[in-house]
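Hey, can you fold this one?
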Amino acid sequence: MMAIEIDGGTIPPYPEEMLGNSYSEQFRKLREMTIRDDDVIVCAYPKAGTHWIWEVIQMLRGQTTEYHKHIKEQHMLEARNIDNFEADPSPRVLNSHLYPHHLPRQMFEKKTKMIYFTRNPKDTAVSMYFQYQGNTVEKSFGYHGNLSDFIDLYINKGIPYGLWYDYVLEWEKFFKTTENPFYQFSYEDMKQNPLHHVKGLAKFLDTDISDELCEAIVDACSFNKLKKANEDVKDDFLKPYFKEGTSFYRKGKVGDWKNWLTVADSESIDRMTAKRMKNSQIQLKYTI
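Sure. Predicted structure:
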């Protein structure tokens, strides 16, 4: 796996045809990007469920259960030519795996609404491992090592977007001082009580929406239906970058790490979590 170091962080080396810019130019334009008053951004570490939540927000803002024709990467700040965002109709639902200091400056000037969520580090690691194994872009996402070696990279040495711990701790620090309105929750809470959070998100977004439509959105955005929509409905331009039978959607379960991590690997994550998260207020759930 390779990562591009830029502006105090790392990102995957996205194919140049996606960016249309050099990496330094991409991040310069990103920081100077024009933000609209009605923009919303979905932020999370990779494999935390961003596709799921992005689709929920699209449906809430459109008051529909129709799937957006695009995949969320076509609205992802670091993975798309910044100039192309200007052509997108409002209201825009942006998304990113970047740290707060990488985001457009106008987001903080205009107090853009932010939706942020976390996923426990064990399920995140397993999901990320299988995505990298399924990727065909050898110089960026491709990974051929075993899971134990990947866990060592994940908790000690860093991978694209950096360590999970660095990411969640920086966002936790950010939310203690920001004036941006934000809705914060966990993947596990969303899985356990999706209707509660869909209604909460609707209220946060000032969307006048019925309970019946909220229930219908929960159903439309269930894992299996979203996976099928990605295959049958969406213009998924990233399909060529995945091996046959693989995609962004694998299982979407909480606690699947128990089927893959060895006792030693699980304990390694536990030790690092105890060390790095000892002063954090983030509540982690490994099962529901």
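The longest helix spans residues 121-134. Let me know if you want another pass with a different chain boundary.
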